[in-house]
Amino acid sequence: MNKELAINIENASVRLGGREIIHDMHWQVKKGGRCFILGANGAGKTTLVKTLMGYAWPKFGAKVEVLGHRFGQTNLVELRKRIAWVSPFMNQFTNTESTGLEMVLSGFDGTLGLTRKATAEEIDTAKALMERFRCAHLTDQEIFTMSSGEQVKIMIARALLTKPDLVILDEPSVYLDMAGREFLLEEIRQIAEKLPEVTIIFITQRIEDILPVFSRGMILAKGRIVESGERDEILREEVLSAAYGLPIKLWKNKAGRYWAMLE
């Protein structure tokens, strides 16, 4: 077991719904790393997240280690308390009648919805985070009545409540408009810069969302790693064109972000 690694996956193939989604994956991320995962719909990104969280299991013979704990030999309930998973798709796992405040507070216990009475100190901490992410007005609103963008803000606040060791941002901006996306990406940039000890995985299907702070990454296509390594080395037109099946041209702005255009 390598203590320098936050994530270590070896020989992992994952089947869901009667078909193999991820094929023979080998992937490592160092502790404190900022890594992106890029891929089109159906590339296997969400299945990979479920594998990291212990909600999906690879076939026999694989090794999955997260934060130094090998799956099959650890308490996943306790491990999940050290992992913050943020996704607009998490509503399928949540109690949708929970209010915004209750959902944020549930981060203290690693659950998706509050299962006990919170302390006054916990409530104050949660409300402060909701103010930061401009969702304090959602304190008493039920999750199912919120827009997708509002739900993401709630889940970000929940994620940072307990200072996790690993943050997984699973397509957090997919439902946001341009202004909402840029606000969220700026918050993510600041989180990445202010919490150097935290490992952050950023998952997206949009090339322009990959901030320069994510210095390493991998590109997925049809459940396989197409390319992995340094950001500027793998974000190449020929690689992206093959992964997306489109003739992609790249333009890089002054901030170091890449934007995709069709040739």
- Helix/strand-derived category reads alpha/beta
Question: If you average the pLDDT, what whole number results?
Answer: 89
Instruction: List SSEs in N-to-C order.
Output: EEEHEEHEHHHEHEEEHHEE
Straight-line distance between termini: 46 Å
Query: How many helices in DSSP terms?
Result: 8
Tell me about this structure.
With 263 residues, this protein is of the alpha/beta class. 28% of the residues lie in helices and 28% in strands. The protein has 8 helices and 12 strands. The protein has helices at residues 45-53, 76-80, 100-105, 120-132, 148-159, 178-194, 231-234, 237-244, and strands spanning 5-16, 19-30, 34-38, 63-66, 69-70, 83-86, 166-170, 199-204, 216-221, 224-230, 248-252, 258-262. A 6-stranded mixed β-sheet has the order 6-7-8-3-9-10, sandwiched between helices. The chain has a 4-stranded antiparallel β-sheet with strand order 2-1-4-5, covered by helices on one side. Strands 11-12 form a two-stranded antiparallel ribbon. Helix 4 (120-132) packs across helix 5. The protein is globular, with a radius of gyration of 18 Å. The N and C termini lie far apart (46 Å).
